Amino acid sequence: MPPTSSVKVEFVKAIRRFTVRPVLPEALHPLSDLARNLRWSWHAETRDLFQSADPECWAACDGDPVRLLGSVPPARLAELAEDRRFLRRLAAVGDDLADYMSGDRWYQSRSSGSDLPAAIAYFSPEFGITAALPQYSGGLGILAGDHLKAASDLGVPLIGVGLLYRHGYFRQTLSRDGWQQEHYPVLDPNELPVVPLREPDGTHARVSLGLPGGRRLQARVWLAQVGRVPLLMLDSDVEENDLGERGVTDRLYGGGSEHRLLQEMLLGIGGVRAVRTYCRLTGHAEPEVFHTNEGHAGFLGLERIAELCDGGLDFDSALEAVRAGTVFTTHTPVPAGIDRFDRELVARHFGPDAELPGIDVERILRLGMETYPGGEPNLFNMAVMGLRLGQRANGVSLLHGNVSRGMFSGLWPGFDPDEVPITSVTNGVHAPTWVAPEVFRLGARQIGAGRTEDALTVGGPERWDAIEEIADQEIWDLRRDLREQLVVEVRERLYASWRQRGAGTAELGWIDGVLDPDVLTIGFARRVPSYKRLTLMLRDRDRLMELLLHPERPIQIVVAGKAHPADDGGKRLIQELVRFADDPRVRHRIVFLPDYGMAMAQKLYPGCDVWLNNPLRPLEACGTSGMKAALNGGLNLSVRDGWWDEWYQPDFGWAIPTADGAATDEDRRDDLEAHALYELLGQRVAPRFYERGQGGLPDRWIEMVRRTLMNLGPKVLAGRMVREYVERLYTPAAHAHRAMRPDAARELAVWKARVRAAWPGVTVDHVETPAAAATAELGTTLALRVRVGLGELAPGDVEVQAVSGRVDSDDRLADATATALKPAAGPEPDGRWVYEGPLALDRTGPYGYTVRILPAHRLLASGAELGLVAVPSEEAGEGAGVLLR
Hints:
This is glycogen phosphorylase. By secondary structure, this protein is of the alpha/beta class. It is about 40% helix and about 15% strand.
């Protein structure tokens, strides 16, 4: 025998990757259509059908129908093709999808359909539709995915636009000492639930962008069908691109400034070109409204300006036309969360030898530069560009709207933050995605399947009132069942995590005792920036241990979350939490689960009794995770930030007091708020959960669950959110777009230029009221007389207003209302104008008024749009005076 030798084994890498698709029997062809429409991700009957095809394969494929169809053995496919019961179910599900795709829904049933936009293009850097299409990192993407799904359910003609990242965000594991590890699996589009958008000759549809030096960036267009809504996704990994350009769509939020800039140019500019291509190929109506979800897609406005300039409009007129049909949503309450690029970097990527060569690069730069008090004039700010290119803008909760108005008030000098034209549409969540099947089945059994489905999609308080009819025992049994399912899920995931961390099977027997299905279960899962305070619960570890190990009222906590790969501070927070959870004394009561994503979340939200959220107020723009818990009967325990500030009531949750007075001392603030959290858990939350009434049930807890569902259910729905967008933003934007014909756009652009040039000559010269006094009676009407100078402008160019309301100790107006005054006659000999009007004193207490002049034009969406206002000087007369006490 030859001598034994040592052989080194190498892993052989493929030089080319491709996907071998299964050949489905003809009778099963509809399965392919069902798999390619992502409605399956929120339609239980479709998922059940796929699972029944091969339960083992379904589990191994993590519930992904596309992977399932590539994994089911041919023999099993042949068997299914002869299974009459399966084929009947397949036909029924296929017919249901056809009805869903073509039938009239809420949008089509509106009384005056022609008033509504023909189509809306919705741009976002990430979309969380399903774990099978991992193109999201956190809340922004999940919100965008829920927006598309709710639009589909309501029949809103939306076109989604995003990027297709070859590595998605990242997969998270832990090292043995609890440090976050990132992994970037390659995603093959041919293995994802997307299809190529094809030209008539069968070639893959593409868009192209110019790069400095005359190079081109090519990108293919893929289509993901989200129910009725097409989602276009751009992919730069094509052979014609150089290696650097191929990597533009490599990772979500990866790379340096230039990499991010190219991603955002491709998303915005390439996205508009993809929409035009899609509409040309499919006959879909062209969008009348363009909605940019955060500033990442802001360059879409530049492409639309360039289109209009190519059609003969000048830049200023094109800008007005584009603004009229643009909606901008901001999601960040802190300047650090906004993408900002160096001026020279942006300038290099636009102009004669790069992208948009027909537009003066200085005009482009002016749209995004921070040319306002407090800004950094050398930085190009994507949110600032979004606001300057969008006639309508919103934050994502009432509190966040207030914060945004203050944060961006420099763009509207002379106006109080309350008058900055940024409104609010509070986020919502897509109930069919996030409500556990068991919750839906209980509703269907007790109040009817159709009624339950309507409640979860269309909303409306009257549909949710039926929860009053469900028995306490039914609710408590449901909550216990969901908690038990979470316990099983946690043990499986924890075991897999410890194996990845290097633990042997013999040392993991303790995992069988982790968590208890009868113990109060608290969830905390989200991204891990510092302001979300993952480790606030650890401020007093002895106190936390007492709560976890209480002999009569213990709690258990499930924690999950990812830190950005470049955020070592966030990774240290995770490590601190993991090390505490590894302590043998408490590891059966607190766990950290790595690789937080949609699949985990869909088990976590329903299984938790309480959802914990303790950010630094007011840095949570909305925070939708607590909404998903609420839809499953979970109670919220949260700082009053984001949506919870808006809808909190003590009969269905708890508010963690905030130490606003200690805001400058972060350690003291954290100590105070952690102490408040421990007090709530120990003195109010846990006692309420374990308290039993005469029937042996926690009656008061069950009543809080019932109130959560009845009060929050109709509010937190993405359907409610999308209806608000349609009614308050999309429809007015479509009307403005239609009114802004080329002649109107030119008129408005010329008028704005004239008003800006003449504004220094606009003055409030004198304000008077007869018999002004320090006190007056409620119901009195004062006659105002105001003398103003309009310079080169005419009364038709302005509105003179009396602004009145309560005043504080600094004579600042609060809850102010504006009343338009009218010219009394023609101009006086010196060119001044006299305006008159009544001022009704309709409130008691300290009361005051002032007068101001704003630009006015029929095509403006807001009097603050130009950021111009004239107010009285100290010599002008009474100005603002306290009238009632």
